[in-house]
Specification:
By secondary structure, the chain is an all-alpha fold. Helices cover about 60% and strands about 0% of the residues. The chain has one domain: Orthogonal Bundle (Lysozyme).
């Protein structure tokens, strides 16, 4: 179809031709200006996503630095909305994972401390029996010392290191689709879980939230017979009024992984390489 401006140009007088040329250039200028404006002001999704991710990584780093400096967590895991799997940068991934997980670990440890305080203070058999059941003991067949050995905190450095190893810093399929940070298994066919691709006979536990995954893991360490040595060592440290250290208690976890004794150096190296021991001061010895 012929351009009307071009048709006007070919059949018009000199004055009309000049006017037509001016109209053509004006039209081209308007089109060019619109193209430039749209390319400059139109949102670039990729750029925006990168800016958001970088902002989140820096926020995570700042929160962790502040926690180390003040020895307290003053931010929520919800403040870090970017997930570790959103970046390929190792250090950025670690920062996001730690900042999203540390406040949850502290919250769960504080929850345990509140339970421990109730155990020490209450004389109600009903309350004690309820807590005993929660920690895998039979009602009426325990004493406070036994219950208190189970109702106790786990060093944040140990929790963080195991979560990092078992979930590949929050990027594993189990972590992404089931909030499973510790690779806990279930052999109950009716329990919610994720079927591994290369194993049979069990599922990896699925959780509604990451905090519930941490709660389940802490209960496992506090109740499973395989970790009695960890609980005994922790009780000794508590009697000495010492803060339990992740590197210390890690020595009692060779039964956690199929790697056996080779699993322990993986935990301790993860703690050391990422200065996770800095966070062990966030737990209290005395209520």
């Amino acid at each position: 179809m012929a351009n009307p401006l071009f048709s006007l140009y070919t059949s018009a007088t000199t004055l009309q031709k000049r006017v037509a040329i001016m109209l053509i250039f004006a039209t081209l200028a308007i089109i060019s200006a619109n193209l430039v404006a749209s390319s400059f002001f139109a949102p670039d999704t990729k750029v925006q996503s990168m800016v958001r991710l970088n902002t989140q990584i820096e926020a995570a780093r700042t929160a962790l630095r502040r926690t180390r400096a003040t020895q307290q967590v003053d931010f929520s895991a919800e403040h870090i909305t970017a997930a570790p799997y959103e970046t390929d940068r190792v250090e950025g991934r670690k920062a996001l994972f730690l900042a999203r997980t540390l406040p949850l670990v502290v919250a769960e440890n504080n929850r345990i401390l509140a339970q421990r305080s109730r155990i020490e203070r209450t004389t109600s058999p009903a309350q004690l029996n309820a807590l005993a059941i929660a920690y895998g003991l039979k009602p009426g067949q325990f004493d406070k010392t036994t219950l208190l050995m189970r109702a106790d905190v786990v060093p944040p450095s140990l929790v963080l290191a195991q979560a990092a190893l078992e979930s590949a810093w929050g990027t594993s399929r189990f972590a992404r689709s089931g909030n499973a940070l510790f690779g806990e298994r279930t052999f109950d066919a009716s329990a919610p879980g994720i079927i591994p691709k290369d194993a049979r006979g069990f599922k990896v536990k699925r959780f509604a939230t990451r905090q519930l995954s941490i709660r389940s893991y802490l209960r496992t360490l506090n109740t499973n017979p395989a970790y009695r040595g960890l609980r005994q060592r922790r009780a000794v440290l508590r009697r000495l009024n010492e803060i339990p250290k992740g590197r210390d208690l890690a020595l009692q976890l060779q039964g956690y992984s199929e790697l056996g004794a080779d699993y322990i150096p993986l935990i301790t190296r993860t703690i050391d390489a990422n200065q996770l021991a800095d966070f062990d001061v966030l737990i209290r010895v005395e209520e």
